[in-house]
Amino acid sequence: MVRVDHTTRRRSAVHESFLKHGGFRYLKLALLLTAVCLGIYAGSSASPVRNGGSAAGYFLGILATVLVVWLAFLGIRKRAITGGRWSLKAWTSAHVYLGVAVLAISLLHSGFQFGLNLHTLTIVLLGLTVLSGVIGAVAYSVIPRRMSDNRGQLSGEQMIEAVQAVDAPLRQAARRLSEADALLVSSAIEDTEIVRGVFGRILAPDRNCPTARALAMMRRQSVRAGPLDGIEDKDEDDSERAVRERVTLLLERRSAMLGRARRHARYRALLEVWLYAHTPLTFGLLGALVGHVVSVFYMW
Amino acid sequence: MFANISYVSRRGSRRVTEETRQLNADVLIAGRGADCQIQLSDLTVRLAHVRITQIRTGRVLVEGLGGGRFVLSGRPQIRAEIDLGSGASLQIGQHVLTLAADETGLTIEVEEKKRLSRRNVGQKGDPFSLRGTWLSKRAASWILASAAVLLGLVFPVFMYSQQSVGRSESAATVAGAPADLSALMDAGGEGRSHGFQSAAGAIWSSGALSSAHRSLTDDCALCHAVPFVSVRDETCLSCHGDVRHHGDPEQLRSASPKLSPVSSSLLSVSSVLGREAERCSACHSEHNPDVSLSAASQASCASCHGEVRIDGLSAAADFGLNHPEFRPTLSAGEGLDGAALVSRVSTIVDLQRARQTRESAMAVRGLTGDCDGFEPGRANFRGSDGAMVSDPGPGDRSGLVFPHKVHLASGGCVAGLIDRLGPASPYGASLTCADCHKQDEGGQLFEPIRMEDDCAVCHSLVFETSRGVDRVLRHGEPLEVIAAMNDFYRAQTIEGVLRTEADARTRPGPAGLRPGALRETAFAFASTRAQERVEAIFSPRGACFGCHEITLPEGGRIEDVKVARVSLQDRFLPKSSFPHSKHSTSACSTCHEAETSNLSSDVLLPSVKSCQTCHGGEHAADKTPSTCLTCHGFHSHSEDIPLMRSRAAPGMFFTARPGTVSGAAQMETF
What we know:
The complex is a heterodimer.
Chain A lengths: L5 H8 L7 H23 L11 H18 L1 H4 L10 H23 L7 H34 L4 H10 L1 H8 L4 H13 L6 H6 L6 H23 L1 H65 L2
Chain B lengths: L1 E10 L2 E11 L2 E5 L6 E2 L10 E7 L2 E6 L5 E3 L2 E3 L1 E5 L4 E5 L2 E7 L4 E7 L24 H38 L6 H8 L6 H10 L15 H4 L9 H5 L11 H7 L5 H12 L7 H4 L14 H8 L24 E5 L5 E4 L4 H17 L39 H5 L3 H10 L11 H4 L14 H5 L6 E5 L2 E4 L5 H29 L8 H23 L12 E2 L10 E2 L24 H4 L16 H5 L2 E2 L7 E2 L2 H4 L21 E3 L15
Parallel strand pairs in B: 1-12, 3-4, 19-20
Antiparallel strand pairs in B: 1-2, 3-5, 5-6, 6-9, 7-8, 7-10, 10-11, 11-12, 13-14, 14-21, 15-16, 17-18
Helix pairs in contact in B: 1-2, 1-3, 15-16
């Protein structure tokens, strides 16, 4: 029994992962539930066959259905943040562990009979839903720390501003560059996507980046220009070189800022993207589950 | 040319002039370079981009330098003469140059368009969130959920309702009795292979039907007749009407094991849902292609039979480890009304022990059981002095005298007889089992032994040969035998008398015997002769006595002779099947000790241990795994096989069903 007193309140104020909530209370509950269901499965008569249509199968099916509906309620529940025993964190912790347990229970319910039919579709959708949820749980337990390391104290908006802050001096510095170089820098400023598309921001945030391209080009040219060339026409070279160096420096800065913003975008996307699978899969699962439940009683 | 150049920017809707330059030059260069008269701070603009030259007042020439282009009236151009009467607007990169001319000279207004970043603009709120992307939880949820409901629910329900509507209409017209499955099957034949229908069926079907029912695959409504009502037993019975129950349902229920609280609560869950435990489909689970429809594990039998719950039933849980000794159904003589009796009391072990006792008793008396010793094979065997040797003990009381040992011996009297038969003999040098026991067509058991087919080659029923014609007695009808023999001898006598009288009439001389006296003497003789012969065949060494247990009337009429009723069991273990054909690689003597059997009361069945040398229980690793159903049936389709019921009291004798020789049937209390 946990008494919700001042001590508890204070402790809960300290950050504790939703996975570890209450000393893994819901992990233990989920394990216990799975063990009980395993016992029911193993203890049920294997004759004529173990599947959803046996007495144990009905029980496990009802249990799994109730759990799935309860799990789906997190979508509604999460919009109301409350504290205490039934805090959103407790609810989320239970959601994660019971969500994994419900897959095990459903497999026991199925008696591991699969086929090309609605019933297997239901369990496949459940499996995908749970898988996406597990990915989400892993993301939520791994990424926030990295994200925090990456962002320092900056907000997302400030990160974009930090990129854009380089634009004006860069534009200014590049005014004296030759046509081709100026266009490169212009493209770096104008065409660089800070946050790319859904796949781009996760899989290849830096591929074909105009800023990176401009930076690479500037560096390559300064290597080619080299120190020997500079001796012959010192004054002119010096001034052009100074411009180039300044532009290169600014591009480097822009690139660094971009990298940070893009990592931030990637982390944010990883934190969010699983939910774009999890939620629709949940609704698909609920649809299939309705079909499954109605069908087995309709065609009894 | 005098030029007034002003740089303008917008702050909201306000235009602000940032800087104004006046200069006097022949040519104006616009570009990014520091030396340009018109400064355009746009990196896409060339260092020197265009040259503006005044041709005359109000008219200028604009030329792109080094390929520099500008946009005029919406078209990119490289060179243009422009009349500035109504002003003109050039676009170079991000800048718009508005040109106007008056008397004083040229006015050029340079405005940098607000730099609209093509990227990350127009995104509402947090640019890092996926919310602004094409991804949509709501749309995907709607699509998936509705696809699942349409495909998984609406479509199958629609197809099913079409199916059942069509079916009930056609069934009503064809049969008028929609519950009759056969009528429904006939009625539904035409729409059977409807593509959508089978697709809908496949979506809902939890697995293929068993091979026996597979032709019903697309006709869901055939078995699932009423939505939300589980498949009813009547539906099964509409085809399988002859299936008999395992036993009295009340008794079965009382014999069922007590369920654990978990199992009983699980069962109550499913019965609350409307599924009773005692249904055909409780055991015969369809849509499980990997499991035989009639497969039942030995555990499911052992759940009731593992312990003795009904008096008289032995426990059985595993054929290899825990199976009672066989208890064959034996002939038990005849009742007072002459009906055949059967008994099922002794086990094979009891019977084998009794056989040994009898053998040793015979040995003590010096009886060897060969052809000429005592009356071999006699069940209640009496010595040649007629006294009972000993209590015969339990055995088969078939009423027949048949020593297997004598018949199967390779030398001895039977072989001698075969030898005497010569080419007429259908047998080899000596008899084999198969000479008399012919396997039935099913390969299970053997055809019943028939005297005419199996014995008469040697055991001839010819009692006289008259004028080259064998006179044969009718088997199995003692009174008819007696009558036939009397008739024969009387007829012979009449013939003799007539012949003698004819001789007397034709012969001259004094009359001999008075005809009446002759006839009296002759008929008396015939009568005596017939009686002697009749008594002889019913007496030791007589044709009947050799095989039958016969009680001669003491001093009464010969017609009161009592021939024991013969009832040969053709099925000693009627509650199990034993396919002899599958065991044909073993010699008969592997299981049946016939070659040493002297007495027909010997039961030549093997013990269960003999079976257990090869067969083990369902989970046997080193023996042929055998479930209960390998030998036993749960249901029975035939009235010849008794229901699996307990015996009311052990040791009782029961009346065989009239009309069958075997009489294993109708043991209602078995």
